Queue: 4 jobs
Job 1
Amino acid sequence: MRAVQDLSYSPNAAARSLRSGRSNTVALLVGDISQPFHSQLAKSVAHAAEDRGYSVLLCDLDHSMDRLQRLLTVLPLQGVDGIMLATGDAIETPGIRAAIDAAEAKGTLVLLGSAQPDSSMALTVSPPFEEIGYLATKHLLAQERWPVALLGGSKGSVISTLLRAGYLRACLETGHSEGDTMVLDAGFNSTSAQRETARLLDGATMPQGIVAANIPIALGAISALADSGLSIPDMVALVACEEVQLAEQLRPGLTTAGTDIGVQGEAMASALIDAIEGQAVIARTLVPHLTVRESSASS
């Protein structure tokens, strides 16, 4: 050890990679890096991977299935040991499935960061989106607010489908019929969310509560409510279905239902790296919680 210190020796990563057969590099593919959730998740994944001696390559999918399929083909050829997919888009298509199978056949493991319907993927670390939608909706219904509208993402989104299931379950449990519910596709961005919320507010029935699928959708809803002169939460209460740091910095502070992104990022990185290194993968349950702030605080 004295000689190591005197010579300022540090292990050669390239030589170690040749010996182990691994590059000690994993890739994180996110649906949209501009969204607060994905940037915060990337930070968490990177820190957890670094603690295990791995580097992280961050790739933005921009919700493109063609780009996803191309990356699933190219990244294994670049020596990446594993790939984490963090997107709410439905990716269980024959082309994507074939690309995942081909990547894993080359020794590059793939982990899903959000549940997919009928998926056979062994490596999955996903928030319980249905429970999150239920928790957010139940919170507003407990204040006897009705109607409550759900601003989802897009029709092709698995997350939107699961949030809608939780939303409907809460509404039905409270005695409301599915025909009286309000579900809109807001496109997972603030611009379309503002437009759809404005259209909702111009309708015959005014919602007393809004559940937004993510923070950008909530921001669009806040803008539309302000344009209509409707105060939050006195006239319309608002809950977003993800917990990011931005939520507490907004005015009014935004109530959220979601899981801890730091825990999710660490769980994703640990599960993938454990699998790469041939260790037993420990199942991690991500527990949703409600954080009540001013946007839905009862008077």
Note: The chain has eleven helices and ten strands.
Job 2
Amino acid sequence: MISLSLEFPHPVEIEIVSEWFMSLGACAVEVSNQIVETDGPCNTKAEEFSSSSGTKRKTFRVLLPCDVSSEDFLMSLASFSEWNQIKVLEKATVEETDWVERVRESFIPITIGRLYIRCPWHSIPETSTGKDELVHMIIHPGMGFGTGEHPTTRLCLSWLQRTVQGGEKLLDYGSGSGILCIAASRMGCELCHGVEIDIDSIRNAEENQSLNSISNISFFQPLEAPSCCYDIIVSNILFHPLVDLAEKFSQCSRIGTRIALSGILCGQAESLKAIYEDVGFKFEDTMIENEWCLITGKKI
């Protein structure tokens, strides 16, 4: 297998270039930024390609299978007038790799409190019984965010374990892989609704729901979500979407509804609290991991 590192001297559309590389026989494409020092001001048209210290260019690492000639590949690129100035930064031979196995090896089982989160290909460990018994969850990594590795996911999972008493109705807005709904169901929630804008993430979440043999979870896109009053609301997305959702969360909550918001940086917490307090929530705790935080409270 041949690895080529290629650089364009001008801004390009990543998706178009990557698709064209694949059509010419590439089996994988990786994109990164490279800062190139300049003596004068940057004159590129797109702001994303400029910085105070130089020009930020897109570097593509292309993998070619053994039956694709690197010379033919580069000649095909050079035949396009817009691409005939591509610079080959590096050419190297790399060993054949089982990429599926490589990806699998990158995921390891995670324990968060009493939750034991594993992928479908991990073996089931021996578990203790009684109060120390682990609660098992299977998450297949896919398009949906949430495998238990990111600090915000861990913060939300820890909070759910302290909050769910049993019998609650829960809303997870921005449900990603479905990991929070699955955990809430395992903890004893009566009903869990996950709302997610990305249809591929919903498919991933439904796959994970099936892997865990859970029937009390439903996933929806925003316009399809039912109007319900929830006992617990959790949302692990980003600051600006959370700002936009404040009024909606107020409408689908009642006095005493518990709420947890994450996906935000520590410096954004106070601003978000103020916005939600204006629509009837009172915040009690802030939990921090690295630069990420989770703010929790209730409807008053």
Note: The chain is about 30% helix and 35% strand.
Job 3
Amino acid sequence: MICVKEIKKSFGDAVVLDNLSLTMQKGSIYGLIGHNGSGKTTLLKSIAGIYGLDSGSIFVDGQAVFDNEQIKRRMFFIPDEHYFLSQANMDTMARFYKGFYPGWSDVTFKRLTEIFEIDPSEKLTGLSKGMQQQVAIILALSTRPDYLLLDECFDGLDPVKRSLVRRLLTELVAEKEIVVMISSHNIRELEDLCDHIGIINNKQIIYDSSVCEMRQGMNKYRLAFKKSIAEDALNGFIHKNLVLNGKVATFVAGGDEAEIRAQTERLDPVLVQVSPLTLEEVFLIEMEEKEYDFRDIV
């Protein structure tokens, strides 16, 4: 488990994180959402033990992470900007990481190079950003970490590789029950991958919830009637985002679907359609209620 408690981090007079807290449980994929410059990278580097804190604490399995070599041998951080040894190829980097990470797996490394179809003898400096991203992911997964921190890890990947990375992460979490944190400025990147979402804004985590709780009981309802319907006809139950368009009413409602269906049937609609909300739709509804404007990160 990773526990971040009331941390503050500044660079000179610029405060980047202030009184920020969150918890990541074993066997989970935590999605960290925020616009560019919101402090996502600073938070990840703080959790990785790269940055020291002005105040507060970060504990991994009950141990402080900063200057803790034993914890860092179980953790891998993929930054947005990659660093590889000069003139190195994948085999060079594999030998380098094998000397530091006790969980390194040659079998995993060989399998992943074959899956991603990358030549491990090719120099890394000549690769595109997308290819370097794939190399970083291969090396990270080959260390078999207990904690994996990913900063904008889908940038530069084509749709096929994005799907592959999603599947590999899901399998690794299911197999080893590791903790994964993925930062992104776009919530669509994390749809159907994360089981927990945290929103960073104004130097703090301003929203923190499991995806199950976000989705729980919330559906989109579309009702069609023989004639136009008045807005007050739907006052009998709680709904959100009501849109009336002539004979059609669309809204979002939380609660027991059967009960809501029964209530709508009293209005004598000719058609009732029910569909689950996407993570993005749930997110926007939650943020609208809290009066946050996050249109630039969805």
Note: The chain has a mean pLDDT of 89.
Job 4
Amino acid sequence: MILAVGFFDGVHLGHRAILSGAEAVLTFRTHPLETLAPERAPRLIMSSEDRVAALRASGVEDVIPLDFTPDFAALSAADFVRDCLLPRGVTAVRCGANWNFGAKGAGTPDTLKAFGIAATLVPYAVYKGAPVSSTRIRAAISAGAIEDANAMLGAAWFVRGDMFAGKGLGRKLGFPTLNFRIPSFYVQPPRGVYAVRCGGAQAIANWGIAPTLGSAGWSQSVLEVHFTEGLPSAFGDERIEILRFIRPEKTFPSLDALKRQIAADVVQVRKGTQGR
């Protein structure tokens, strides 16, 4: 069996090159740093469930998600091969150029070869002259460079959240919204206004705390989604695709000023969508 190995957060263009030609994928339910160094564990591009689904959709025959526990982290490189690879009939491994395994990252492709397992180190995918990586994509999202992040992902970055009833202010202003609490494990973009797609429909969203409302605003960031052409008829518990950053969130001097700005934002989103 040809096995691809990695965490694969985002299942980006570089990951897809690794997955190409693999029959199965070995990955982990949680990021290894959650166990090894929780204070350095990154916020993630996608949930574990969506990551496994994306790996399955890549065309591999099987996805093997393991728990990265302290006991697992303590496995020597040789024990990792004996316990996790050989029993599964692994004959070859596809991995990224910087992949190591086993306790303290002591395992290398040469370790695999000692057990008769071939290793293919797949070169990085490159975007704008630099390697594509999950770390780089997280940094792009954090900086609001959503279009760069999406280019490296090869698809729109998306989030899922819990929908809840809002304050009704959007409807009073003429821009009704659906409101979502986004889990804190996701990498956080700057507070601001974004062009999004939800349920296959064009929309605009504010990711933030509604500062114009003062104490009546949100205590933590909420994603408020307004459908520019009306709520899609088949809308359900959908993912929210983040397409591009429009402007930072700001405090307006009045609700009328806020309303005028939202109207201008909607026009900008419509124009941007038509030009794509």
Note: The CA atoms of residues 146 and 244 lie 5 Å apart.
